[in-house]
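Input record, target 12 of the design panel.
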């Protein structure tokens, strides 16, 4: 095999370095690569990698447990994944969110007494950070528009001085899932720091290189926004299960069919396991089209 030429200085070398991002452009060494970057960056496209198959579960949900299988492109940002989860679970994107990679070796958090909690909250209300127990997460990926979100003020317990934070529109799913330091870590998506809807993200496989967001499987009707955490959601389901709902239950059902931010005019009766993949997928398609 003949020697190849550096694409900048045209010098021949038996072994050239390749642009790690696109894998296309070849250089004699780091100096030429650096020199070339200001022009090459405009045409340098990251190498395409297979999509990620994610099983996303709301672990606290019961009868039925609510879960979706989502195909996520490798080059999607976490903000795009956030929107895809919103669509797949029928949320209304009315609250803030974050993603964390959990450290399985983290020491457990201590149980905090009420006085300590109040004291800590007072410090936090002055915008000072005080850690609650040992670090739990390798990284936290946050909503880039958090300043607009009222409920972001409840997110303090998710912060930690030893957990780096990055903005969701700037970090890529594939890059994070492949990180040596936390490969195979369990990921969690938290939506709404008031009601705390935790979603477990499990990587169950890889798909094709050209995949777009797709929901391939799932079970469980989406939860009503602002239902009042899991107990509130259970109460709403019980209202629909009641043979003779009382006034309070009727009121709850009326609220859900007309007023919740992700209201469902058809209600929940007999529809607790309802998922319509074709509706989800057409929404995924149109929302990602307008993000391009
Ligand atoms: Zn060169
Ligand atoms: Zn390149």
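The sequence produced for target 12 reads:
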């Amino acid at each position: 095999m003949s020697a190849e030429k550096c694409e900048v200085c045209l010098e021949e070398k038996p072994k050239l370095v390749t642009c790690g991002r696109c894998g296309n452009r070849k250089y004699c060494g780091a100096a030429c690569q650096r020199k070339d970057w200001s022009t090459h960056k405009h045409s340098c496209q990251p190498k395409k990698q297979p999509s990620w198959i994610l099983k996303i579960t709301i672990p606290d949900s019961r009868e039925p447990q609510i879960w979706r299988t989502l195909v996520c492109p490798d080059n999607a940002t976490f903000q795009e994944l956030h929107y895809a989860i919103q669509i797949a679970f029928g949320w209304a994107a009315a609250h803030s969110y974050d993603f964390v990679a959990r450290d399985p070796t983290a020491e457990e958090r201590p149980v905090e007494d009420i006085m300590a909690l109040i004291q800590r909250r007072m410090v936090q209300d002055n915008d000072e950070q005080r850690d609650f127990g040992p670090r739990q997460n390798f990284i936290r990926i946050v909503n880039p528009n958090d300043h607009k979100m009222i409920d972001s003020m409840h997110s303090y317990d998710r912060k930690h001085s030893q957990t780096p934070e990055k903005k969701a529109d700037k970090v890529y799913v594939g890059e994070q899932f492949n990180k040596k330091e936390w490969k195979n870590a369990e990921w969690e998506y938290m939506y709404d720091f008031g009601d705390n809807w935790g979603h477990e993200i499990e990587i169950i496989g890889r798909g094709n290189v050209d995949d777009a967001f797709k929901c391939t499987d799932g079970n469980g009707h989406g939860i009503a926004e602002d239902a009042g955490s899991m107990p509130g959601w259970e109460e709403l389901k019980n209202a629909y299960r009641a043979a003779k709902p009382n006034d309070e239950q009727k009121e709850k059902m009326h609220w859900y069919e007309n007023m919740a931010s992700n209201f469902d005019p058809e209600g929940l009766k007999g529809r607790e396991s309802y998922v319509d993949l074709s509706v989800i997928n057409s929404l995924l398609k149109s929302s990602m089209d307008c993000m391009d």
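The two ends are 42 Å apart (CA to CA).
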